[in-house]
Amino acid sequence: MLKAVEQLSLPELEKFVSQVLLLQGQRKANSLPQAEAELLIKINQSISSDIQTYYDELIAKRQAETLTPTEYSELLRLTEQIEKLQAQRIEYLAELARFRKISLTALMEDLGIQMPAYA
């Protein structure tokens, strides 16, 4: 099988790897207890890429000191929304850590989640 994979072009290889990872995730999810699987889904929820892009633009404007008062209000609203989402994510992580009977730090290491640089 590896010999066949070696023959793939880079785009074909990337698509193949993506499909293999998806299959692996599905099999793992099917073998997890329902509660744990639901927590993992909640933990991996994030804001949309459009909102993230807009937020990043507002941050850049703030740093360049070109932010309008309306944009400043929008930045505050988005910051609050993102902070609530992150707080909820931490709660889900803590719940999953209790479920697995390990520390939050150990769980984050297991899942490959790093603390933000600003924390």
Q: Could you describe the 3D structure shown?
A:
The protein is an all-alpha fold. It has one domain. Helix 3 packs antiparallel against helix 5 and helix 5 packs across helix 6. The longest helix has 32 residues.
Order of helices and strands: HHHHHH
Count of strand segments: 0
Biggest sheet record: none
Strand content: under 5%
Q: Give the distance, in angstroms, between the N- and C-terminal Cα atoms.
A: 45 Å
Query: In one word, what is the shape?
Result: flat
Low-confidence stretches: none
Radius of gyration: 20 Å
Judged by helices, strands and strand pairing, the structural class is mainly alpha
Count of individual helical segments: 6
Overall mean pLDDT:
87
| Percent in helix | over 70%
Q: In total, how many domains does the architecture comprise?
A: 1
Short description:
The chain is mostly helical and 119 residues long.
Topology of helices and strands:
Blueprint: H1 2-6, H2 10-31, H3 34-43, H4 49-63, H5 69-100, H6 104-111
For this entry, give a set of tags.
119 residues; mainly alpha; flat
